[in-house]
Amino acid sequence: MQALFSPVSLVFILHALFLQGIWLYIGRISRNRYLTDLMTFQAPSSRLSRYYHWRVTSIEHALGEGIAYLLILIASLYGLGFALFGFEQVNGAFLIVLFVALLSLMSALQHAWRVKEVVDSESRIAVGIQIATDKIGVTRMMVDDLFIQGAMGDGRTWFALFKLAQRKDQVGWTVRDVLLEKGKEEDARFQSQGPESSSTSSSKDSGPDIA
């Protein structure tokens, strides 16, 4: 208990929170830019967008990023500790380092699991469209069902669909055509119903997301 309230422990906790905040902030900005590119059917147009595309491409990338962050966290904690405090004080705060490392590992594993769900969903959708006789019809039914669900719709399925729309094959072209056509239909419906119903309808769906 005494080690918990020592100066080195306080510095370690604050430093870990600071790094975690930076990591989450960069991730959020990267996600927003990547989603903007996805929803406008563009390839990743910036470094942050390309970075987010890389981290959600496979569970291996997500785990690799988490491990790299964990190593940076531990190295920076000990580097800062040895620069400010004595050897014995830093070694006495080992449990604090272990605690923040475990929390960071749990956060990385949660992100990797979300990526796995998106990748699996993307794979299932792609296979379903490939084996379907009426590829346009199957894709349209899927998109219509998500629109009907509104805010209750699975954002990860939307995310997987917009990712598939980036593919340069029959599946990608099919998904993209259906999404573009559905977007035009919704724009026409909003214009015919007026601004009030448009704002209400737009609040039903928050768009693709994996968070």
Descriptive report:
This protein is an all-alpha fold. The chain has one domain (3-202). The protein has helices at 7-39, 47-55, 59-84, 87-92, 94-131, 135-149, 155-164, 170-193, 195-202. Helix 5 (94-131) packs across helix 7. The longest helix has 38 residues, at 94-131.
In short:
With 211 residues, the protein is mostly helical. It is built from 9 helices and no strands.
**Unreliable segments (pLDDT under 50, ≥5 consecutive)?**
198-204
Order of helices and strands: HHHHHHHHH
DSSP, total strands: 0
The coarse silhouette is: elongated
Question: With helices defined by DSSP (H or I, 4 residues minimum), what is the helix count?
Answer: 9
Number of domains: 1
Largest sheet: none
Q: Tell me the Rg in angstroms.
A: 22 Å
Notable traits:
211 residues; mainly alpha
Summarize the helices and strands and which ones pair or pack.
Layout: H1 7-39, H2 47-55, H3 59-84, H4 87-92, H5 94-131, H6 135-149, H7 155-164, H8 170-193, H9 195-202
